[in-house]
TrEMBL record:
<dbReference type="GO" id="GO:0046872">
    <property type="term" value="F:metal ion binding"/>
</dbReference>
<dbReference type="Pfam" id="PF13669">
    <property type="entry name" value="Glyoxalase_4"/>
</dbReference>
<protein>
    <recommendedName>
        <fullName>VOC domain-containing protein</fullName>
    </recommendedName>
</protein>
<dbReference type="InterPro" id="IPR037523">
    <property type="entry name" value="VOC_core"/>
</dbReference>
<dbReference type="InterPro" id="IPR051785">
    <property type="entry name" value="MMCE/EMCE_epimerase"/>
</dbReference>
<feature type="domain" description="VOC">
    <location>
        <begin position="10"/>
        <end position="150"/>
    </location>
</feature>
<dbReference type="InterPro" id="IPR029068">
    <property type="entry name" value="Glyas_Bleomycin-R_OHBP_Dase"/>
</dbReference>
<dbReference type="GO" id="GO:0004493">
    <property type="term" value="F:methylmalonyl-CoA epimerase activity"/>
</dbReference>
<keyword id="KW-0479">Metal-binding</keyword>
<dbReference type="GO" id="GO:0046491">
    <property type="term" value="P:L-methylmalonyl-CoA metabolic process"/>
</dbReference>
Length: 152
């Protein structure tokens, strides 16, 4: 494998899939002794432009974020039933860790490097302010890698 594919080694997010985000978010809030964060739904198809395994999908996911370090969030995810990596992994593997995320510059170039090294992009999309890509790195790294790029 090429070295320093992403240009960073700073984990910014750990994504956890769950069936009931309200219940799971409350459990984390209780664990940390804080108020439960707002639970939000990702953007609609016209904004998100989500592509899963090469095909557009209207998939959306409920999210809750816990800031647990200067650069680290725990992201809880409850997907809808449309085709997505979230739905696939929740149905296939059950609840638990889905991804670790890194902020990168030049996401398209970084995705190309992953793909050159045998790790394929399985889903990508956008939000107002940036874009993401999920890389299937399970064989080599034992987890899905999420790349995040913020608009400047």
């Amino acid at each position: 494998m090429e070295k320093n594919i992403m240009g960073t080694n700073v984990v910014t997010q750990i994504g956890i899939l769950c069936h009931d985000i309200e219940k799971t978010a409350q459990a984390y809030a209780d664990l940390f002794g804080i108020e439960k964060p707002e639970i939000v739904m990702t953007a609609t198809e016209d904004i998100a432009k989500t592509v899963y395994r090469g095909n557009p999908t209207p998939a959306r996911v409920k999210q809750a974020f816990f800031h647990v370090g200067p650069n680290l969030d725990i992201e809880l995810l409850e997907p809808d039933h449309e085709p997505s990596t979230w739905r696939h992994d929740l149905d296939t593997y059950g609840e638990g860790i889905h991804h670790i995320a890194f902020v990168v510059d030049g996401i398209k170039h970084v995705v190309e490097k992953f793909e050159r090294n045998g790790m394929k992009e399985i889903q990508k999309g956008e939000w107002i302010g940036g874009r993401y890509s999920y890389i299937d790195a399970k064989d080599l790294l034992k987890v899905t890698v999420e790349l995040l790029e913020f608009d400047k």
